[in-house]
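step: validate -> pass
step: tokenize input -> pass
step: predict -> running
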Amino acid sequence: MSADERRESVIRAAITEFARGGYNGTSTEVIARRVGVSQPYLFRLFPNKQAMFIAAAERCLADTRGVFAKATDGLKGDDALHAMAAAYQRLIVEDPDRLLMQMQMYAAVAAAEAAGDHEFGETLRAGWLHMFDDIALTLGDAGEATTFLAYGMLVNTLASLGFPAGHRIWARFYESAKPTG
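step: predict -> pass
step: emit ->
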């Protein structure tokens, strides 16, 4: 396996491990073990644990942007909105580690900020802003992007808390954003 392929394996493993254990609760040893490499080799690919986390979070954001772009190809307005909502719902159902990684990203940045580390969140804020701008461009309005992402955060919260698909809390969501099953 080339270094690029191994780096890709580390990012995928890091998404899974950080999603499940959080930034502070995940060791680089467990990531190395998942990939099947030694810790020293891991640090040849990434300078430190924070760089692995940032790469995993950036990938998560980029993948989400990609899901939105694919879902809305050729669509605008309400059609694009509902296509993104449905695509996101499928993403977090089919790959729950993506949802968990997002939630861990928010928690890790907030904890770093509280501890006085303002640099840690800069890259992740930039990636999130890129996603916001993509959504605003697709929907044609920053206000619509704000509303879409506000509903998305509510979806993240409800899904993270385990509210089942049939629960009354989902009743006022537009159909494309409601969970299935």
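step: describe -> Residues 109 and 121 are 5 Å apart (CA to CA).
step: cleanup -> pass
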